[in-house]
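Task: sequence design from structure.
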């Protein structure tokens, strides 16, 4: 049984109490299959009602016709962890019940996927993998950070599996790391869809193409606006001297960046997956030159409208 979980600690709601501890409001989002959601809700909503009352956390289930649904848990750290303990306990109970009907297999571990901004993954992994190794050893849970971004987002999945106690201990440690290292720049959250479609931009608005329709994508539109306000200073050549706000109907231009050799692999991704994501999300053409002998940097040429270029730079810098 596998569920996705997204952590969004609200840093502006963090303050210190008199004894030096932290008052932190957390939001945990779990992406679950329909059968799992039904188990969490229970008959006539009895199970989720009990979880809300006993944990004091706000627990909401998203609407929609997708095969997967998002369960959002918000509250103080202890309230959220109490709710999370009850949810993982229910999942573990369901696994035990299913394993009883199949005596040929041992009970599988509970498996969750934590979804966090890519810009925070470095802190979670640590230098040379030291932090993630420490979390594995101290919690007993299996933890793996995905190398690729989730579709149409700037987030990665962190897979956690083990016993209920091990997972909760692991989540606590991951929360501590994330609270100390807030995300850099804007984040496009991962949202489950019936089928991810291509992204197009028009008049400062982003749209995802689903079948014969173009559906507005507010997260990408917001990122376009943020990118327009935070132009990169890494450019070594810029053929256009000004941007035209959110109107991207101007002429095509090109811009060049110099990227250190040791970072270029992170931008390209496995089999080009990350650079293709940036191309799709920004609408810009991106060319990476071959390495030159004796040079410590690679030349990256971005071509497109002013906003497309700016957004591509913004996403590259977010990596």
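Answer:
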């Amino acid at each position: 049984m596998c569920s996705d979980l997204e952590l969004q600690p609200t840093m502006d709601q963090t303050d210190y109490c008199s004894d030096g501890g932290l008052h932190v409001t957390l939001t945990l989002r779990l992406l679950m299959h329909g059968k799992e959601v039904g188990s969490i809700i229970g008959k006539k909503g009895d199970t989720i009602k009990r979880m809300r009352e006993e944990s004091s956390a706000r627990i909401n289930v998203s609407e929609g016709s997708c095969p997967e649904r998002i369960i959002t848990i918000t509250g103080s750290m202890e309230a959220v962890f109490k709710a999370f303990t009850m949810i993982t306990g229910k999942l573990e109970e369901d696994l035990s019940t299913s394993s009883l009907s199949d005596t040929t297999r041992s009970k599988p571990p509970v498996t969750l996927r934590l979804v966090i901004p890519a810009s925070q993954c470095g802190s979670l992994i640590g230098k040379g993998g030291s932090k993630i190794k420490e979390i594995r050893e101290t919690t007993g849970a299996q933890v793996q950070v995905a190398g690729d971004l989730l579709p149409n987002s700037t987030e990665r999945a962190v897979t956690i599996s083990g016993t209920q106690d091990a997972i909760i201990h692991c989540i606590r440690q991951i929360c501590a790391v994330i609270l100390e290292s807030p995300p850099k720049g804007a984040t496009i959250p991962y949202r489950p869809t019936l089928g991810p479609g291509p992204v197009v931009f028009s008049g400062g608005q982003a749209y995802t193409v689903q079948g014969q329709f173009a559906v507005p994508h507010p997260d990408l539109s917001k990122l376009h606006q943020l990118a327009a306000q935070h132009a990169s200073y890494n450019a070594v050549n810029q053929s256009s001297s000004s941007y035209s706000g959110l109107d991207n109907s101007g002429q095509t231009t090109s811009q060049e960046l110099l990227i250190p050799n040791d970072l270029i692999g992170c931008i390209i991704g496995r089999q080009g997956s990350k650079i293709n994501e940036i191309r799709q999300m920004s609408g810009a053409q991106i060319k990476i030159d071959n390495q030159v002998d004796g040079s410590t940097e690679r030349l990256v040429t971005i071509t497109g409208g002013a906003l497309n270029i700016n957004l591509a730079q913004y996403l590259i810098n977010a990596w």
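Confidence is low (pLDDT under 50) at residues 9-21, 230-249.
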